[in-house]
Amino acid sequence: MTAGRKINSDNQDWCTPPKYVKAVRDFFGEISLDPCSNMKSIVHAKTEYTLPTTDGLKASWDYQTVYVNPPYGIDRIRQTSIKDWIKKCAEAHSKHGSEVLALIPVAVNTKHWKEYVFGQANSICFLADTRLKFINGGHDKGAPMACAMVYWGKETDKFYEHFSKYGAVVNITDLIKKKWVSPDLHQKQLSE
Questions:
Q1: Three-state SS sequence of 128-178
Q2: Residue of 119 and 130 predicted with greater confidence
């Protein structure tokens, strides 16, 4: 269990719904990298990393625009989880200046949201779809949790323009300006 939800590690190929692929394309113009693609993906980025050929967590994310719909469960073989993908999103933006969009579960109480979304991302669109319909094995499958589109980049107004029709968009750049960190991290820093 994590954040009150059951971890689903059975099938990692939950493809992005077409309307969100279109929204990402409209926002970026072109998707340079999809680091966690699969054979059924409709994202069609210029560069796609697909297991087992390329491990998207180990390969470079030095691309202008990156779209990530990470596996939400645990990869028991690689010992990774969604927190590793969210960390990589924040790193791609801070290290390479990449514009990154990630479709992830809303889990604001988790350490990975506190470390890599709050204080590092620019904006969040809390999607209005109550159960996002992912494409899974050719069938639509509703997500068992609320989802958000998180943006690491500099185009705050443009993000609002493109994503406000899909849900509540929140600009969190003030958290960056205030150098916000999670209470746990703040306490750790004080004790060091």
A1: CCCCCEEEECCEEEECCCCEEEEEECCCHHHHHHHHCCCEEEEECHHHHHC
A2: 119
